[in-house]
Design goal:
Layout: H1 20-27, H2 40-49, E1 59-64, H3 69-82, E2 87-90, E3 102-104, E4 107-108, H4 111-125, H5 135-148, E5 154-158, E6 175-178, H6 186-189, H7 193-200, E7 210-212, H8 219-227, E8 232-234, E9 240-242, E10 252-258, E11 264-271, H9 277-289, H10 296-305, E12 313-315, E13 318-320, H11 326-335, E14 345-349, H12 357-364, E15 370-374, H13 384-393, E16 398-402, H14 405-413, E17 421-425, H15 428-435
Parallel strand pairs: 1-5, 1-6, 2-5, 6-7, 7-8, 13-17, 14-15, 14-17, 15-16
Antiparallel strand pairs: 2-3, 3-4, 9-10, 10-11, 12-13
Helix pairs in contact: 2-4, 2-5, 3-9, 3-10, 4-5, 7-8, 11-12
GO molecular function, one term: ATP binding
EC number: 6.3.2.12, 6.3.2.17
Family: Belongs to the folylpolyglutamate synthase family.
């Protein structure tokens, strides 16, 4: 592989920093494959950067899981900041701007912070012997460096893929969370649910709390925690929630949790955050294990204000959700409101070719009257016509196929009436395209 040319910021004859866009393009050239599971290379560069010699924050919470990572992390961030903590987060992927991946005190990292981080990664990577990094690995190291500079009370880290071998896992978490386990990324994690659970449980550390955010996790998750003598706090056992009308259709709910000392704590009359209540309960449990003394009114305010772009995000008649596996699609289907009389429930769907399209379509099918399929470009893209064939074979009605998400919006706009609603789903790429548009309203 030929040696890549770094942005001008690393050229000895230049004093002009490269742009963030230039850095991101450059990082895509550093490694022969996009995903290369393993920690040795990224840990070696982290060691050179000094990231492993001291904690990056007073407390670190790492979140793994098939679904629910982003919403759990967002609620922890909101609650902790309302309590006066200085919080930094690392999440992936982003929707519109790369800067979304790193936040400090609720603000996205600016270009100069990220450029400084990438320069530090590159300087460390190029030391002898030179080490090759994937785009995600370099981005993770940059994010960790940015967080380490910020004098944080709490760092919240979201696993990108799996857990045990994800780049985030070079950091020893004080608390590990596994939200849900389902099949996704089968090319890398396989289809054995027990093994997937063990991989995600790889973020747990000996004698440090392991929070299990679902009552239907495979037994391998708890077993992995017990094997390293990590205290286990499981939803439905150590902590729980209750509400009239069920967890996914409530206006107020109550929470009961447990401190590290075994003290039972309760909070009542919490607002529905518009996100899974299992995840909200998990967020509260993790924070109380971190030592945070929860104030009921502060928690209510934080849950009322929390927002996660691309998760059941309503823009007029349009609902945007990045769900791309059957478990996520089932949640979306349950949360969609009933249609006004005479209305139609459209779905604009675009998916990558390594996702379980049949499972997603089947979960949504009972709630969708009209489908519009869109093509996603790129190596992992899936043609709209292939999605349409799957929908028809499962009994759905396809109204239109478009060669891009933007074209799909235009096709729906021609038919949209005030009583219609549109769900946009299937991929981060599909939702991201629409977030950069002005969506038509009837």
């Amino acid at each position: 592989m030929s040696k890549s040319i770094a942005p001008d910021s690393l050229a000895s004859d230049s004093l002009t920093p490269g742009s963030l866009t230039e850095w991101l393009h450059y990082l895509e050239t550093l490694h022969p494959v996009g995903i290369d599971m393993g920690l040795e290379r990224v840990a070696d560069v982290a060691q050179r950067m000094g990231l492993l010699s001291r904690p990056i924050a007073t407390q670190v919470i790492t979140v793994a899981g098939t679904n629910g990572k982003g919403s759990t992390l967002a609620m922890m961030d909101s609650i902790a900041r309302v309590h006066g903590m200085r919080v930094g987060t690392y999440t992936s992927p982003h929707l519109v701007r790369y800067n979304e991946r790193v936040t400090i005190s609720g603000n996205y990292a600016d270009d100069q912070q990220l450029i400084a981080g990438f320069k530090r990664v590159e300087e460390a990577r190029l030391q002898v012997p030179e080490i090759s990094l994937t785009y995600f690995e370099a981005g993770t190291l940059c994010a960790l460096w940015c967080l380490a500079q910020a004098d944080l009370d709490l760092a919240l880290l979201e696993v990108g893929l799996g857990g045990r071998l994800d780049a985030v896992n070079i950091i020893d978490a004080d608390i590990g969370i596994v939200t849900t386990i389902a099949q996704d990324h089968a090319n890398f994690l396989g289809t054995d649910i027990a093994q997937i659970g063990r991989e995600k449980a790889g973020i747990f550390r000996a004698a440090r709390p392991a929070v299990l955010g679902s009552q239907v996790l495979p037994s391998s998750v708890a077993a992995a925690a017990h094997a390293i003598e990590a205290p286990v706090y499981c939803l439905g056992d150590a902590f729980s929630h209750s509400a009239d009308g069920g967890a996914n259709a409530c206006s107020e709910w109550n929470w009961k949790g447990m401190t590290c000392q075994g003290e039972v704590i309760t909070l009542t009359d919490l607002p529905d955050p518009g996100l899974p209540i299992d995840n909200a309960a998990t967020a509260l449990q993790a924070l109380i294990l971190s030592g945070l003394v929860l104030n009921a009114e502060a928690c209510r305010r934080a849950l009322h204000e929390v927002q996660v772009p691309g998760r059941m995000q309503w823009i007029g008649q349009w609902c945007l959700d990045v769900g791309h596996n059957p478990h996520a699609a089932d949640y979306v289907a349950k949360r969609l409101p009933m249609m006004p009389e005479g209305g139609r429930q459209w779905a604009l769907i675009g998916m990558l070719n390594d996702k379980d399209a049949d499972g997603v379509i089947s979960a949504l099918l009972p709630r969708i009257t009209h489908w519009v399929c869109v093509t996603l470009e790129g190596e992992r893209g899936r043609p709209a016509v292939e999605l349409a064939e799957r929908i028809v074979s499962l009994g759905g009605q396809v109204h239109h196929c478009s060669d891009s998400p933007e074209a799909g919006v235009r096709a729906i706009a021609e038919q949209l009436v005030p009583t219609d609603r549109v769900l946009v789903t299937g991929s981060f790429f599909t939702v991201a395209a629409l977030l950069e548009m002005t969506l038509p309203q009837a």
